[in-house]
Specification:
Layout lengths: L1 H11 L1 H6 L2 H18 L5 H20 L5 H22 L5 E5 L5 E7 L3 E10 L3 H10 L11 E10 L3 E8 L10 E12 L2 E8 L12 E2 L1 E2 L2 E8 L2 E11 L1 E2 L6 H25 L8
Helix pairs in contact: 1-3, 3-4
Length: about 280
């Protein structure tokens, strides 16, 4: 009955559906495809009606969004794919090897992932609430060069909707200048999942930011930071950072591994100093 009703409504407004663009039309078609699939054999109605309701809610929210160009939709999709892939890597607990462990408990692990290469995983606890880290890492992203000496500059090139941005990052020289200046152009996606916040990204192409003279264009693989309140201590935050980078150029693997592992340790230390010196945005540090 529900399927027939949907088809009747869709048929009566066919011209309206055809006039939709991008995510609006995709959401309508997705609901229709789901109903068709369920009608051909699926779980009891109670099990999938809730799914249709959720998709209906998604449709309603997308209808309120501005229309995106095909390129913007591609960036949104790329950001979400980077998030899913990075979270999939973190979810697999097997095969991680310890790179270093600091006296304060900060730990760096590594693992080789097929088609990705060697990735690094930082696990730390920060004595600040999650919202404070979110402010510093997302809302004040462009100010990171002020407190992290490994970053010279981060600039937001384009903001797409609420969750996606295109950024250009200029990194400082590393390992006693053995690793020269690198820059990155990335698509970044931020999502809230209950009490957890995920910041993900990967390398992308952006015509307005071609390669710079004298700087090697490196690439982020699927990478992400996961922020969540520490269990039993909500005023503290558990931060997990998955780092995957292709530095390009001719560099020995031993140098690359040392640089990336140390970059994560340094980041945690610089972040803590920043948060201690500037407890909240209202302080205007």
């Amino acid at each position: 009955m529900l399927l027939a009703t949907f088809k009747l409504c869709a048929g009566s407004s066919y011209r309206h559906v055809r006039s939709m663009k991008g995510l609006q039309q995709q959401a309508v078609l997705a609901i229709g495809q789901e109903l068709n699939r369920r009608a051909l054999g699926g779980p009891a109605p109670a099990a999938w009606i809730n799914q249709v309701r959720r998709r209906g809610s998604l449709l309603g929210s997308q209808l309120e969004d501005p229309l995106y160009s095909d390129q913007e939709l591609a960036y949104i999709q790329q950001g979400e794919e980077a998030m899913q892939r990075a979270l999939g890597i973190l979810k697999d607990q097997e095969g991680w090897k310890k790179e270093s462990r600091q006296a304060n408990g900060d730990e760096v692990l590594s693992k080789v992932i097929p088609d990705v290469g060697k990735v690094f995983r930082l696990e730390v606890v920060v004595d600040q609430p999650m919202e404070r880290l979110y402010e510093e890492l997302v809302e004040r992203m462009e100010a990171m060069g002020e407190w992290n000496p490994n970053v010279k500059e981060i600039k937001v090139l384009q903001k797409i909707g609420k969750d996606t941005v295109i950024t250009h990052e200029l990194a400082a020289e590393a390992a006693g200048n053995l690793v020269g200046p690198r820059d990155f152009v990335s698509v970044r996606c931020t999502k809230r999942r209950g009490s957890m916040c995920v910041l993900a990204g990967m390398a992308t192409l952006y015509e307005e930011m071609p390669q710079q003279k004298g700087v090697i264009r490196a690439e982020h693989g699927p990478t992400c930071m996961v922020l969540r309140p520490l269990a039993g201590s909500p005023s503290r935050t558990k931060l997990t950072w998955l780092l995957s980078i292709d530095l390009k150029g001719w560099l020995p693997k031993t140098i690359i591994n040392q640089v990336l592992s140390q970059t994560q340790v340094d980041f945690a230390n610089h972040l803590r100093k920043r948060l201690e010196s500037c407890p909240a945005l209202e302080a205007r540090c």
